[in-house]
Design goal:
Structural class: alpha/beta
GO molecular function: transaminase activity
Organism: Streptomyces tremellae
Helix content: 25-40%
Pfam family, one: Aminotran_1_2
Distance between the termini: 50 Å
Protein name: Pyridoxal phosphate-dependent aminotransferase
Shape: globular
Low-confidence stretches: none
Order of helices and strands: HEHHHEHEHEHEHEHEEHHHEEEHEEEH
Number of strands: 14
InterPro entries: Aminotransferase_I/II_large, PyrdxlP-dep_Trfase, PyrdxlP-dep_Trfase_major, PyrdxlP-dep_Trfase_small
Length: 377
């Protein structure tokens, strides 16, 4: 196994995620119970779940699940889908299949840490940072300048974690065309797709734009079902999928059969679940707007364009690291400070924290935060 640094986010969560009283930094939308999900199933899928044999499943994934995944794409068939035990396994194995010594990758930052540390363990990597002074815009000229003759992968994430930024449709299409022109694989993390505030900002999926591109998705984020541990890569290059399947033989081998049926139910009810989660975010945003309006001296806030996370600035004199540390220790309110999202590739803001806006009833956590702020004055 490749030697990798500590996963800062997961290490932080290991300490606080299940002990903090108020989780205000969640990266997933509000989940549902097993009963609520099964209530969305048709008779056939509900019966399939109840009669399910608990044996091994196909490495590529349950055929009916792959059909349900493929139905979310315009140009992908079930044969273009490979399922994984969450998005992290998919990312890890894809980078190991696509990259090796002598190769080069370009990664857009800020990002989920594995998007850069896994490639960095394999080859040379260049980062291109979103610009916080231009609403986290991506400079396509900077991406072009970062490419080299031996660049094999361009890794992007929109809607972005942690900023909530969404690239323009024309720019995203230009990235896909640029990768095809240069023989580069576009690896597109699309786990927040479907939670855009303006549906017109929803990007096409990379696997629909290019037969060489890889689209990464999962049931965890937009659908709010991380406990299923079901992710997938869609790619119309079936030889590449075969290589990925062989790599998966060394990790999970196959997914959990109950999770595959439940993921199939969720994907068939995808529009219902996404509408519910978008409505929850729309309901929550005025609550966060009002909180930050009351504390303009301490925070600079702008809501995300897509997804269910945001990346506000902390303006207090002690800095965001001490702020977040004291807040969780003294008030039990969990936020993720900027150090969790620092990059080894590009300069990154040091005054930000990640905020989750997709969970139900954030008022209790914000009230605890407000009471703690008041007690400090």
């Amino acid at each position: 196994m490749t030697r990798l640094p500590d996963f800062r986010l997961e290490t932080y969560f290991s300490r606080w995620e299940f002990t903090a009283r108020h989780h205000l930094t969640a990266s997933d939308a509000q989940t549902m119970t097993l009963g609520e999900l099964l209530a969305l199933a048709d008779d056939g899928d509900r019966a399939a779940f109840e009669r399910l044999p608990l044996g091994y499943t196909e490495t590529y994934g349950d055929p009916a699940l792959r059909e349900a995944v493929a139905a979310t794409y315009e140009h992908a068939d079930a044969a273009d889908v490979l399922c994984f035990a969450g998005a992290e396994e998919a990312l890890y194995l894809a980078m190991h299949v696509l990259l090796g010594p002598g190769d080069h990758a370009v990664v857009v930052t800020p990002d989920y840490q594995a998007a850069e540390t896994v490639p960095l363990a394999l080859c040379e990597v260049t980062g291109v940072a979103l610009d916080p002074d231009r609403d986290w815009a991506l400079d396509l000229d900077a991406v072009r300048a970062a490419l080299r003759p031996h660049t094999r992968v361009l890794s992007v994430n929109f809607p972005n974690n942690p900023t909530g930024a969404v690239l323009g449709r024309a720019d995203f299409a230009a990235l896909a065309a640029l990768c095809d022109e240069r023989g580069i694989r576009l690896f597109s993390d699309e786990v927040y797709r479907g939670l855009e505030r303006d549906p017109a900002r929803t990007l096409p999926q990379a696997a629909d734009l290019s037969p060489r591109a890889l689209s990464l998705n999962v049931t965890s984020k937009s659908l709010g079902l991380p406990g299923l541990r079901i992710g997938w890569i869609a790619c119309r290059d079936r030889e590449l999928l075969r290589r990925l399947e062989r790599a998966k033989h060394y990790t999970s081998i196959c997914n959990a059969a109950p999770s595959e049926v439940l993921a199939r139910i969720a994907l068939k009810a995808r529009e219902t679940i996404l509408a519910r989660n978008r409505a929850l975010i729309a309901r929550n945003l005025p609550v966060f707007d009002a909180f930050f309006a009351r504390h303009r001296d301490l925070f600079a806030w702008s809501p995300p364009v897509g997804g269910c996370v945001a990346y506000p600035r902390y303006l207090g004199p002690e800095g965001v690291e001490e702020f977040c540390a004291r807040l969780v220790e003294e008030a039990g309110v969990l936020l993720l400070p900027a150090s969790v999202f620092r990059s080894d590739l590009t300069p990154a803001p040091t005054d930000r924290f990640r905020l989750g806006i997709g969970r139900a009833d954030p008022e209790a956590g914000l009230a605890a935060l407000e009471d703690w702020l008041a007690a400090r004055t």
